[in-house]
Structure formats: structure tokens, C-alpha cells
Amino acid sequence: MLLLVWTPKAWHRLSPLKPPALLWTPGGEALHVRYRLMSRQGPGEASRQSQPQGPGFRTRLLITALFGAGLGGAWLAARAEKEQRRQQQRTEALRQAAVGQGDFNLLDHRGQARCKADFRGQWVLMYFGFTHCPDICPDELEKLVQVVQKLEAEPGLPPVQPIFITVDPERDTIAAMARYVQDFHPRLLGLTGSAEQVAQVSRSYRVYYSAGPKDEDQDYIVDHSIAIYLLSPDGLFTDYYGRAKSAQQIADSVRRHMAAFRSVLG
Amino acid sequence: MAAPSMKERQACWGARDEYWKCLDENTEDASQCKKLRSSFESSCPQQWIKYFDKRRDYLKFKEKFEAGQFQPSKTTAKS
To answer: Cellular location of this protein (chain B) (predicted)?
Structure first.
């Protein structure tokens, strides 16, 4: 807006640069043209050409630029403040989720009661399966253990807690879980519980499971979704890995998450 | 019935792999692999045998499918 006020003045100073053809007309018209030029500039301005007074063009440009910069700076500051407020709200929401959501109340394979808060401060890799599983659960657990071992071998990385949660509480007792986990890794923790407790944790982590029909010796296979879940030290669900991901890919991903992690729990 | 231990699982998988290798060599002719079949059946729980048989069917179907043996019909005149 201010620029528009200034440019006509700049334009008028340039107007004497108009093609000389205008001034070739018979004397009277030349005078008329010159008068018109002069009158547009105004009486005070007529002297401006010979003796420039007040701020020059460059000064005016500098002032405009400074004013523009000031406006821009104010806008950026307001935007940064809004961004910060939004970030604070998000952190607060995450904090509530970390404490509240995805909680579980289960028994580990030594009979001790465990809930999600017990693992605060640790990275957790979690897998849902059952001990009577023909091939998928052993393969996935083997893969999970390989990931843990790869990360263990790297100095400076925090240890990852591997957890195996059963979706077959009917058969997977504490003793059954203890027998099962010992084959994989000394730190692999098996978790089981009542049917309601298993249903609760499966719901929290969106794990589908469905026991199939029993055959003559009462054996059955439990159909279930297959994924390895990564929980951050805040207890927040951070990532998941399907069958197609290799141990190396998962280890790389966990390492990236570790590097980027900022706690919301303080 | 307790779940199979790691050793028992590996014995079962070994027997399955032997049986499947025999089937591969004999173009799915089960009559040629009766001995391995009975070895397979004694190494694995019944549920697992049913599961692995279905798995075999699926893998064979997948092979054929990926080789392009199942094409959509050109016309719908018959339907």
C-alpha cells in the first residue's frame, strides 16, 4: 500500500525521459506539455529535480524493505508460536495415551503379575501367538530373537525386551509358556492369563484370533493376525512388522526409532 | 496334550520336508511316497498334518497361478 503512494512520485521523476517527439510539436504545445508535467508534480516538487530533498529513492526502498521484513518476522513468530502450542497439545495427548492405552494385566512364565507400566523405560518387541503353532510362530519368534541379538551386539544401544503373548489361554498355562520360551532366548518373556485378560490385550493391540475346530485328540489351531509390535520406552505403540520383513530390516527400523526417540513422560 | 518341544517341531518339519521332496520328485504321486508319509504322520500332531497338507495344496496352486495356468475366460457367453 505504501509502495503505491511512492511509485507515482518515482514515475513522475522518470516522466521527463519520455520520447522527445512530444516536445517537437509547435512551441505552444510543447509548453503545454511541459506545464502539464510540471503541474502533476506540484509546485514543491518542481524544484526536486535540481535539488533532491527528503528521502531518496533508495532510502524509501530500504524503509519499505525493513517494514516488509518486520511484518514477515511478526508473521513467522506468530506461526512458530502456533506450531509450538500444537506440539504441546500433541505431547499431552501422547502422554495420556502412553499411560492409559494398551495396558494389560497378565502373568509371565514365572507366575509373576505384569502390566505395561513394568516395561516403562524399555523398548519392547511383542509377538502374539500360541505354543501349539505348527510353523509360523516359531519362525516369527526366531526372527524376533535374531533382531534382539543383532541389536544386543551393537554397543551403545539399549537392550530390547522380547515378549511373547499367547492367544490360546486355554492351553497355554504358565508352565506351557515356560517350556516354550526357553527354546528361543533367555530374556524372552512369555505372558498368559485368563480368557478375559487375553481378550483385553488383544483388543488393545488390534490382534485378531480365532480358535479352529477341535479334532479327535482335542487339538486345534488358532488362526491369528501375524505381526511383531514395537513399543517405545514410553509404552507407546511405535511400529509393527509383518511376515515379509526380514530380521535385518526390523533391526534397522528399530535402530532408527531409537535414534529419533524423545520421551513424552519426562 | 503338551505342545511339541523345539526338538519335536524340528523332527516334524524334517519329516515333512522329506515327504514333500519325494512328492516333488514323483510329480505329486503319493503312492510312491507311502513310507515317508507314514514317517511324517508319526512325527507330527494330527492337526499339523492337516495344516501342512492344506499348505502344500496352497503352495502348488500358487505355483500354477503364478505360472499363468489360470486365465480369465475370454467370453462370458456360457454364463
So the answer is: Mitochondrion intermembrane space
